[in-house]
Amino acid sequence: MKRKIIFLTAILTLILLLLPACDARQYGSLKSLTKPYIAQYECIEAKLGEQDLLKRFDYIEINLEPKNKMQVIYKPKDGKKNIVESRYSFDVKSHELTAEIGILGYNFKEATVVENGKFTVSKTIGDRQLIMKFKAK
């Protein structure tokens, strides 16, 4: 019995000495392991036809939040910050992100694939193609 107590004490002491050497931050949070798509994404390219839309904005961001809530946040140059809230779904097998958002009285529904923290939204508006590329911050 005395040997078991000494053995358990030695094991616990060893664990307590080694535990601080493990840095859990290098593996990320539980959220980043189970739902890595939940993040803030910044627009790195936005074009409507040949027109560069990013020149008109200080920033365009998409926040994917828990419980399928989504925010599109943008600030026109010399304008005020705007937030449009919406909902999204995410298929963990195919990495397909599907979102529907209402802007200027129109509803847009778009699906795209998130790969390595990046995705592209492509939509035809009139006779021009809107292409917006996003990257996780």
Fold and architecture overview:
It is a single chain. This protein is α+β, with helices and mostly antiparallel strands. It has two helices and nine strands, in the order ααβββββββββ. Strands 1, 2, 3, 4, 5, 6, 7, 8 and 9 form a nine-stranded antiparallel beta sheet that branches. The chain is globular and about 35 Å long. The model is unreliable at 16-33 (pLDDT under 50).
Helical fraction equals: 10-25%
Number of helices: 2
Number of strands: 9
Shape: globular
Q: Quote the beta fraction.
A: over 45%
Features of this protein?
about 140 residues; alpha+beta; 9-stranded antiparallel sheet; 2 helices; 9 strands; globular
Task: Explain briefly what this protein structure is.
The chain is of the alpha+beta class and 137 residues long. It is 16% helix and 52% strand.
